[in-house]
Specification:
Layout lengths: L22 H28 L12 E4 L6 H13 L10 E11 L4 H4 L5 E6 L10 E5 L5 H27 L3 H22 L5 E8 L1 H8 L4 E6 L9 E4 L58 E2 L13
Parallel strand pairs: 1-7, 4-8
Antiparallel strand pairs: 2-5, 2-6, 3-4, 3-5
Helix pairs in contact: 4-5
């Protein structure tokens, strides 16, 4: 370097080893990178707290009202009566949902007198065939008895299709035992169809909504076995109602299926090879199943024409 040349700037001077000084530059780059990462994380965290929509935390939660298999029925009746007596006068302005159980199977025409004065959401029904499990169905029932009659007609149509499906399966089965099972299922479905189409005495419970005084008055009426208030219920599509059957007095159990011929395959109450059309968030609509090698499926409960529900434990 000549004497006329200016001295090199501090950041341009060679290091003792003859290489540019990279230590300071590395420290600066590291600090800049850490700052950038922190800014990104801070922004993401703020966005997560403020811009992310909060989901419905009640999804998947189901309220269960009624009885479950193995429950003692006298204990359930006492508990329902105690809950009804303790129901506070200050509650929801629109009233409290309650499960009303009858002491006998009623025809649609008998419902208005028993349930007069309280809004009805749905009724629960099954065909009480001797020594046969039959499907439990939930029917929308805002208008009595018209809605129940219409709901029963819809179930009868579905049972006719189910019986035809079972007969088709029986005709195409080479297995003698399986063929008898299909034939039995067809007979049961046909009997259910005929019963519902005639407006049978099949309704054994209802879901209503009313104030404490109205519910207590309802519990005192002839034919009413129990009124089980459920103040925790706010949405019917997230509630399972399982009333006791009128012909059971001691312990809840599936009806005996000991009629002539093999019992229809599948656990629980019901003989169904067709999924019932769901209306209040229950089973999806299903078409009649085509002939196949497997045994007919069963549906313990069915939300036909506006009801909801499936089997489950009691609250």
């Amino acid at each position: 370097m000549s004497a006329a040349d200016p001295p090199p700037a501090a950041d341009q001077r060679p290091s003792p080893a003859g290489r540019p000084d990279r230590a300071g530059r590395a420290r600066w780059l590291t600090s800049a990178a850490l700052f950038s990462v922190g800014a990104v994380l801070l922004t993401a965290g703020w966005t997560d707290r403020h811009d992310e929509p909060v989901g419905d935390r009640t999804v998947g939660e189901v309220a269960r009202v009624g009885v479950a298999t193995g429950d003692p029925i006298p204990g359930y009746l006492r508990a329902a009566a105690a809950d009804l007596a303790a129901l506070p006068l200050t509650g929801s302005p629109s009233g409290t949902y309650a499960l009303v159980s009858f002491d006998a199977y009623l025809r649609p025409g008998g419902l208005p007198a028993v349930l007069a004065g309280v809004p009805v959401a749905e009724v629960v029904a099954r065909v009480p065939l001797p020594e046969r499990q039959t499907e439990v169905v939930h029917l929308a029932a805002q208008r009595l008895p018209q809605d129940v009659v219409a709901g029963m007609t819809g179930v009868a149509d579905r049972k006719d299709r189910e019986a035809a499906d079972q007969r088709t399966r029986a005709a195409g089965s080479a297995d003698a035992e399986l063929r008898r099972t299909y034939e039995t299922g067809a007979r049961v479905a046909a009997r259910e169809a005929a019963a519902y189409r005639s407006g049978c005495g099949c309704v054994y419970a209802a879901v209503v909504r009313g104030g404490p005084d109205a519910l207590r008055d309802l519990a005192a009426r002839p034919g009413v076995r129990a009124v089980d208030p459920a103040p925790e219920v706010t949405r019917l599509e997230r509630t399972v109602f399982t009333p006791p059957l009128p012909d059971q007095r001691d312990v809840v159990r599936p009806p005996a299926d000991t009629g002539p011929g093999p019992a229809p395959a599948g656990p629980g109450v019901g003989d169904s090879s067709e999924a019932a059309p769901g209306v209040i968030g229950s089973s999806p609509a299903g078409a009649v199943a085509g002939p196949g090698p497997g045994p007919p499926t069963t549906a313990p409960t069915s939300p036909d024409a506006g009801g909801g529900g499936s089997t489950g434990s009691s609250r």
